[in-house]
Amino acid sequence: MHAPADLAFETTLLVRDTCLCLHTQRAARALARRFDVALKPAGITSGQFSLLMSLNRPKPPNLGSVAALLAMDRTTLTANLKPLERRGLVETAPDLTDRRARLLRLTPAGRAVLAEAAPIWRHLHAAIETALSDPNHLRSELNLLSRSDGVAG
């Protein structure tokens, strides 16, 4: 077995200063914390807000389509649904056209929480956008990076 080679500290600095993954993760955590604090009066986290909002559709979506929208695997989505189901905010039902699939539906209580949270989100989101030089460009670039096929390279 070879002894591990020391990695130059310059590489650490390069990653710290340029790594898109690191900078995106840091920004995501900071944004999530801001939204978590703002949404606390509505009794949900930023992740729960996104999940509940993804269910606010004219027809109940299936688990797979919500997982794809949120870029989550089905197991993680199921785990994130459990506390919302226990609180009576979300319910699942079998899809009558495909008994193997599960449909996800906001309950009236879930709709009420979402209605309470939406103005909070709007206010904080607008404030954050005013601090950015070009929020539409940032959104476009983030969407490019989040595509499942990734960026060529």
TrEMBL record:
GO terms for biological process: response to stress. Residues 17-150 form the HTH marR-type domain. Pfam families: MarR (PF01047). One of its GO terms (molecular function) is DNA-binding transcription factor activity. InterPro entries: HTH_MarR-typ, MarR/SlyA-like, WH-like_DNA-bd_sf, WH_DNA-bd_sf. SMART domains: HTH_MARR (SM00347). Gene3D superfamilies: Winged helix-like DNA-binding domain superfamily/Winged helix DNA-binding domain. Signal peptide: none annotated. This is Winged helix-turn-helix transcriptional regulator. It comes from Allomesorhizobium camelthorni.
